[in-house]
UniProtKB/TrEMBL annotation, chain A:
Superkingdom of source: Bacteria
InterPro entries: ABC_transp_permease, LivM-like
Keywords linked to the UniProt accession: Cell membrane, Membrane, Transmembrane, Transmembrane helix
Compartments reported by the entry: Cell membrane
Membrane-topology annotation of the record: Multi-pass membrane protein
Any Gene Ontology CC annotation: plasma membrane
GO MF term list: branched-chain amino acid transmembrane transporter activity
Full protein name: Amino acid/amide ABC transporter membrane protein 2 (HAAT family)
Regions that span the bilayer: 27-43, 49-68, 75-94, 100-122, 129-150, 186-204, 234-256, 316-335
One matching Pfam family: BPD_transp_2
UniProtKB/TrEMBL annotation, chain B:
Record protein name field: Amino acid/amide ABC transporter ATP-binding protein 1 (HAAT family)
Domain ABC transporter: 24-272
GO molecular function: ATP binding; ATP hydrolysis activity
Pfam families: ABC_tran, BCA_ABC_TP_C
Taxonomic lineage from the root: Bacteria, Pseudomonadati, Pseudomonadota, Alphaproteobacteria, Hyphomicrobiales
Signal sequence segment: none
Coiled-coil residue windows: none
SUPFAM superfamilies reported in the protein's UniProt record: P-loop containing nucleoside triphosphate hydrolases (SSF52540)
Gene Ontology cellular-component annotations: plasma membrane
Source domain of life: Bacteria
SMART domains (alphabetical): AAA (SM00382)
Nucleotide-binding keyword on record: yes
Keywords assigned: ATP-binding, Nucleotide-binding, Transport
């Protein structure tokens, strides 16, 4: 089958501006969605619970960072803390409103992290680049401090950790807590991630996304076209930390099951940043690539190396994976700053003209 | 299709001014950066419907003058009256709101975006569907996007850049980048268009094309234009009136013929010592 645009004439701007204007892309997306839907029937519990669920959640977190850094050009090292803000907000909401569907609460908890994000985004109006990154780092440490020092946030548990309560919804399905099945959790996560990603896609291809990119590419010219930097930057912080918050809430409620402040430490911030860089800044599909790569590589090595007879112990494999990711980050920063998404785009472009490379 | 290309519907807003009325009046404006005096006590006006050239040797203060007009720099002294309203400390986005657009001496396009998106960005102020519709991208948001796409396509046709519609602007040659930047400013449907050296670095044919676009914008869309340009041939050909700056001062003002005959101007350009 050919991957070709030729012959697919757009007769309206509407079809030209559609979310997937090329027919082969639409077919591809349909196939991926179908595969995502049947995964629970073919994949083991381990794959579902330890790979697919966290991968999807982290992809959403990466999309959150991508909105801020990739689209609006504001570097942030506080993603982990913003995810934590969402998680703790969701925990409190679930405590206070035990009868409301947990999916609603998760989507609501993002509103709190968005508020926190706006607050820590205020300095971006005055400072840029590395210095802004430092203020987001301050957010990271301040929020971590809050998660430890404000016992109200974890309901005064002696352990200082939050434990996910059992919540039912959609009939009497157990959605969260120790007895929720991986399949249920997977479908809920998949639904949220797909819907939210579509919404973000809509934002970035419209006026609001253009304003973010205008600020990113040339803030002086953006102002002259009538963009108010205040509004554009703070809206990027708000949307970004909303997404991070929703991802954080899901991370605890559908993956970890219990969390402590260190779950949202600086290493999570960096992990998400690496996912965004490796996947490609300013690309939504890249966020999925990046998250998949960085989440799955260590697991694949852990499972794969012993299978081919190399048995060096889990600790070493973990370190090999870390080094491989580090090396790849450096490679991509130098050779292909637009990450895996760019390789993907180049691949598609090549396919488009195949078999005539110079067409 | 051809009919639409010739009758570009874009036009400046009706502001009650008749062609020839003073649109922008600059009185005794002075601007300095620390000790550097960029502009010293300059007065001139721009009238509705004209093409007003601002010329002068390097460092004369031409770009600074445009920056003052659209709110990037705030002069220490003097008043600026736009459409009869004196303005104080205007911000760039307010200038945009009041109908002033510009291009830059060093192209300032949005490098990561396509030609289409760059020109669409000029429509920012004219788009107003709220966040909710933007999230869904249906109904009003989609209709708005399509309506503005139509306008943008008219500009793309007008500037003859259909073939690079979806190309990232960073990949375009310099001459085309300048053209896209003009398109982006035109998308704002400005009343006053400021062009900072729109033909710098172009070859003869590109200059001719650009001159044609500027004249067409002026006559078909009724846009008032202030333009900085070093190519005297172009300036004398297309402008209605010329103001000449040198070392931050105004040394000449009038029709191209008058300016050409002005002894101060001749001295400045031939480099007579001061
Ligand atoms: N932001 C600034 N800070 C300090 N000095 C400035 C600044 N902008 C302009 N100047 C100074 O003001 C003077 C006028 O500069 P301007 O850019 O307006 O000249 P110009 O007429 O546009 O010159 P050119 O033809 O080279 O573009 C110069 O001496 C310049 O160094
Ligand atoms: Mg200049």
């Amino acid at each position: 089958m050919f991957y070709r645009e030729s012959g697919q004439y757009k007769t309206t701007y509407e079809s030209d501006q559609a979310i997937f204007p090329i027919r082969e892309d639409r077919i591809g997306i349909a196939i991926i969605m179908a595969m995502a839907l049947i995964t629970p029937f073919i994949a083991s519990e381990f794959i579902l619970a330890s790979i697919m669920i966290p991968f999807l959640i982290l992809a959403l977190g990466t999309i959150g960072l991508n909105v801020l850094t990739g689209y609006a050009g504001q570097l942030s090292l506080g993603t982990g803390a913003f995810m934590g803000a969402g998680a703790y907000a969701c925990y409190k909401l679930a405590t206070i409103f035990p009868d409301i569907n947990i999916v609603v609460l998760i989507l609501l908890s993002g509103v709190f992290s968005a508020g926190v994000g706006i607050l820590f985004g205020l300095p971006s109006l005055r400072i840029k680049g590395l210095y802004l990154a430092v203020t987001t780092l301050a957010a990271q440490f301040f929020l971590e401090w809050c998660f430890i020092r404000i016992p109200w946030l974890y309901n005064y548990n002696a352990s200082g950790a939050i434990e996910v309560p059992e919540r039912r919804g959609f009939g009497d399905l157990i959605l969260t807590g120790p007895s929720a099945t991986a399949t249920t959790r997977y479908y809920v996560v998949l639904a949220i991630v797909v819907v939210v990603t579509l919404v973000v896609k809509n934002l970035v291809r419209g006026r609001i996304g253009r304003q973010w990119m205008m600020i990113r590419d040339m803030d002086i010219a953006a102002e002259l076209m009538g963009v108010r930097p205040l509004w554009a930057k703070l809206s990027a912080f708000a949307v970004s930390s909303y997404l991070a918050g929703v991802a954080g809430a899901m991370f605890v409620f559908f993956y970890l099951g219990a969390a402590e402040p260190s779950s949202f430490g600086i290493s999570l911030s960096f992990q998400v940043l690496f996912m965004a860089i490796l996947g490609g800044l300013g690309s939504l599909v890249g966020s999925f690539f990046g998250a998949a790569f960085i989440w799955i590589l260590p697991i694949a090595l852990r499972v794969g190396l012993p299978a081919v007879g190399v048995d060096v112990g889990a600790e070493i494999i973990f370190q090999i994976a870390q080094m491989a990711v580090g090396a790849l980050i450096i490679f991509f920063l130098i050779a292909e700053p637009h990450g895996l998404a760019r390789l993907w785009a180049i691949g598609k472009e090549k396919l488009r003209v195949w078999p005539f490379p110079y067409a | 299709m051809n009919a639409r290309i010739q009758h570009v519907e874009l036009h400046a807003a009706d502001d009650g001014l008749k062609p020839g009325d003073v649109m922008l009046n600059i009185e005794n404006v002075s601007l300095s950066f620390g000790g550097v005096k960029a502009i010293t006590d300059i007065s001139f006006d721009i009238r509705k419907g004209e093409i007003r050239a601002i010329i002068g040797p390097n460092g004369a203060g031409k770009t600074s003058m445009l920056n003052v007009i659209n709110g990037f720099y705030h002069p220490q002294q003097g008043t600026i009256t736009f459409r009869g309203q004196a303005r104080s400390r205007m911000q760039p986005h307010e200038a945009a709101l009041s109908g002033i657009a510009r291009t830059f001496q060093n192209v300032a396009l949005f490098k990561g975006m396509s030609t289409l998106d760059n020109i669409m960005s000029g429509r920012t102020l004219k788009m107003n569907t709220n966040f909710f519709w933007q999230m869904l991208h249906v109904g009003p948001a989609r209709n708005e996007e399509i309506a503005h796409r139509l306008k943008v396509e008219e500009i793309i046709d007008f500037l003859e850049i259909q073939a690079i519609r979806k190309t990232p602007v960073g990949k375009l040659p310099y001459g085309l980048q300048k053209r896209v930047e003009l398109g982006r400013a035109l998308a704002m449907e400005p009343d006053l268009l400021l062009l900072d050296e729109p033909m710098a670095g172009m070859n003869l044919e590109e200059k001719e094309d650009m001159s044609r676009f500027i004249l067409d914008v002026n006559s078909q869309m009724g846009t008032t234009i202030a333009l900085i340009e070093h190519d005297m041939g172009v300036v004398m050909d297309i402008s209605d009136r010329v103001v000449v700056l040198d070392y931050g001062r105004k040394i000449g003002d009038g029709t191209p013929g008058e300016v050409k005959a002005n002894q101060d101007v001749i001295d400045a350009y031939l480099g007579v010592s001061h």
